[in-house]
Amino acid sequence: MTDPTAASSNTCYRHPDRQSFVLCQRCGRTICPECQTPAAVGVHCPECVREQRARFTENRRASGPSSLTVARRRFAMLDQKATVVLIAVSVIVWLLDRLSGGFLSQWLAYNSALLPTQPWRIVTVLFVHSGVFHILFNMWALFIFGRMLENMLGTWRFLALYFIAGISGSMLVTFLAPGTWVVGASGAIFGLFAAFFVLQRSLGNNAVQLLVIIGLNLVIGFLPGTNISWQAHVGGILAGFVTGFVFARTRNIRQRGLQTGLLVLEAVVAIALCFVGYAVTVG
After folding, report:
1. Domains by residue range for the chain, with CATH
2. Backbone torsion region of residue 79, taken as left when φ is above 0, otherwise alpha when ψ lies between -120 and 50, otherwise beta
3. Which among 215, 273, 205, 208 is positioned nearest to 239, based on CA atoms?
4. What is the dihedral angle through the alpha carbons of 262, 263, 268, 274, rounded to the nearest 10 degrees?
5. How many angstroms separate the CA atoms of 156 and 200, rounded?
6. How many degrees, rounded to 5, is the angle at CA 226 between CA 238 and CA 108?
7. CA-CA distances (angstroms) from residue 213 to 133, 137, 193, 197, 218?
8. Cα–Cα distance measured from residue 178 to residue 214, given in angstroms and rounded to the nearest whole number
9. Using an 8 Å Cβ cutoff, are 229 and 184 in contact?
10. What whole-number percentage of the chain has pLDDT above 70?
11. How many CB atoms lie within 10 A of CB 30?
12. C-alpha span between 150 and 82 (Å, rounded)
């Protein structure tokens, strides 16, 4: 086994010119997307995969895999599977909402006045969209940045970032726009923008252009008549900066427990602040 301290490098151990934040779940090596093999938890490097396949070949003679096992393996081989699932669910919900005349929006959109009795809305709002351009822009942005971040961070870290940013967007809406109806994944997507900026800076890359993109898109939300929830955007950006900083500072495999604890703390604080905001502005 490789000493986990060797994972301090920011580059793939097989491709020194490629930067990555993803570590092999078994040995702790830094691996780029080309060298990653999805596993039940995290990803594995080529050496660990060869070792596992050798063991699997020995054990397979005793009993063949079930159809469920085969399906799971095929899904695990899908690149950026969390991004694909998020987009698929969002599109399906949007289509069903259009066909039902807005029925799903009534139960999934966010309104801080309903928080005590329907708290699920702080998360489900991410899957509800209004017009066709609204969902097209959000899913396009998720497709571009979601794939890059999922490659860099791994599936579970990416999902944690996405939902923490989304909940933080709902939180700021509760404080700054209480009682208003909000739909869309914009808060989570702006969180992806911010986290990507922080990670690029931590790797020593120039991310000024990304900062300009974030600023321009944020300004659009303040224009009269746009009907855009800039509060959700700002909440997502703040959470994205914090979460990106957490990832950058707790990258070593020995800090995995600390990283998990900080992410859980972020989520708990964001949810708690939603209820504090309700108590202050509505309750």
Report:
1. 4-76 (no CATH), 81-281 (1.20.1540.10)
2. beta
3. 273
4. 120
5. 19
6. 65
7. 19, 14, 9, 11, 8
8. 25
9. yes
10. 83
11. 26
12. 8
Give the ranges where the chain is alpha helix by DSSP (H): 46-60, 67-76, 81-99, 103-108, 121-124, 132-153, 155-176, 186-202, 208-220, 230-249, 256-281
CA distance 21 to 149: 9
Q: Which helix (H) or strand (E) holds 255?
A: none
Phi, then psi, of 250 in degrees rounded to 5: -125, 40
Give catalytic residue positions: 186, 233
How many Å apart are CA 95 and CA 101, to the nearest integer? Answer: 10
> pTM, whole model, 2 decimals?
0.75
Which tens digit of pLDDT belongs to each residue from 113-167?
Answer: 999 999 999 999 999 998 898 999 999 999 988 988 998 888 899 999 999 999 9
In one-letter notation, the amino acid at residue 4 is P
Side-chain-facing half-sphere of 135: CA atoms under 13 Å: 20
- Rounded to whole angstroms, the Cα distance separating 148 from 1 reads 29
Q: Which residues contact 52 (CB under 8 A, 6 or more apart)?
A: 44
